[in-house]
Every structure is written in C-alpha cells, then in structure tokens.
Write the structure tokens for this entry.
Amino acid sequence: MPDNRGNETPEEKALREALENLKEQGLTSEDFDPEAAANQPAEDAFAEFRESQNDLSHIKRIIGIVSGKGGVGKTLVTSMLAAEMQRRGFEAGIMDADVTGPSIPKSFGIVNKAMGDGTYIFPQESKTGIKIMSMNMLLENDSDPVVWRGPVIAGAVKQFYTDVAWGDVDYLFVDMPPGTGDVPLTVFQSLPVDGIIVVTSPQELVSMIVEKAVRMAEMMSVPVLGIVENMSYFECPDCGKRHAVFGDSHIGELAEKYNISAVSRIPLDMKISRLSDSGMIEAYPGTCVKEVADRIAAIK
C-alpha cells in the first residue's frame, strides 16, 4: 500500500496517530472485539493487559471517575467521594490520572512531594489520611507543564498503580482526564476497575457527551455505578428555594435510559470553592454525594 502521509488532511493524520498510539499500547481493533468483551466477565475481557499490584499494595476496590468533557467538576467529585468514604471508616486513596492537568493535591492542601526508595514511590496523605498520588507531587514546580504524548502519559498512569506503595486501601478513586482517549482506555484495560462514576452538569449538550463515556464503559464491560450532576442548582440562603441556574436537569432521563439507580446532585455553593482553593475540601459535608457513596459501599 502506498504511503500517502504527505497528502494527509489534519483529520486523517490525527486518526492515524491515534491508531498508532493504540498499537503502541498493545491494543488494536484487530485484537480486541468490544462485542465479545461485553459478553465476558469484566475480569476476563482484558486479562492479558492487566497489571499486578506490588507487594506493598493491597487495594480492594478501584472506582473510576469519568466525564465526557472537561470543566464539569470531576476532580471535585473524586475528592468528595474519597472524603466521604474516609468519614465512613474506610481507607480511601486517590490516583490522579489526569497527568497533564493534575489538581487533586491543591484541593487537599498537599504541598509535599512524593518520596521513593529506588523501588517504590510513596504517596502523600491528606489531613484525614486519604492516600494521594499525583503528577504534581513529582514535578519540581507545580506550574511546570507536562508535555507528553498519549503513550507516555498512559505509561505514567500504569506506574501510579504498579510502582506506588499504596498500602491497605479499601477504595482507590481514579480521577481520569475527560473524554474517551488514551488514559481512560489504559485504566480500563490495565486496572481491575470495579465500576465508574460519571460526572455531568445540567446542560443538555453535556448530557449528550456524557453518553459517550457511559457507552465506552459498556464496551469495556465496566459497570456504571452512578451519576453525579455538579452545579445542579443554587439554593437561596434566604428563602431556601432552589434555582436551576444552568437550565433544567437531564440527569434523571440519562439515569433511566441506562438503568442507573444511584444519582447525586451537587449544588452551586461558594463554600465548595473556598474549601477547594484553601486545600480544605475534606471539611465539606458529603451528604450531597450520599446516594452514589452508598452504591459504592454496596459493591460486593
């Protein structure tokens, strides 16, 4: 077949590079059939791609936090769910897989860097004991950009699982970058994910995009445990009336369409912004994510 790379359109080039990235990860359309995988148990569909925990890690459950697009509050939801499970007496951890846009340490007020002994990397702990690993904890300066291609980023995410000494963790929450690209694919194929939480906002357009994340999870045989709608409403502090600032919610329709029972709504609340900016997100009560947290706790 002739090489027509010199005549490629930008779209054709992007598609070719995306396929080459998948091949570098060891997963191509030729060796993976999503329909066949959907009919297999989740733990079998990607058995040959699974990474193993190291001797210093004992992780019981892995929960992915995903969204169809950016800016809907995925990191906030990850932080609130981890804090809520920690409050309930579980040992929680957070793997910040959003390598090029890590913000988890800021929400928890973590300024110290991760340490290593030549074999393992040791995560930092939040004020309440949540174990956290993020790329920002490896960079010399928090503002340094991570300018890496997809396969390199995917490799870093794998190392956050295989090389970090997580210790005993009941629930490891993986904060993934938005969309359905390299990192979500790597997490789904390399880690034994027990389920995902989909984060959205009230706009109809966002709900449409979220369906892509839900359908990707179905293709990967990963159950959708719940949906969290961020910025769902504003509650007037004077009269208590709720206002749909960003329009009517579509989360109920989306949940019904995909038979998802656990739905939580996070309000527009200045306290959330203040606590996140000051590294005190653990101080915000977790009642607004109770339904989804209950579903996570019920995993058998």
Residues 10-25 form the longest helix (16 residues). Residues 10 and 16 are 10 Å apart (CA to CA). Residues 25-40 have pLDDT under 50 and may be disordered.
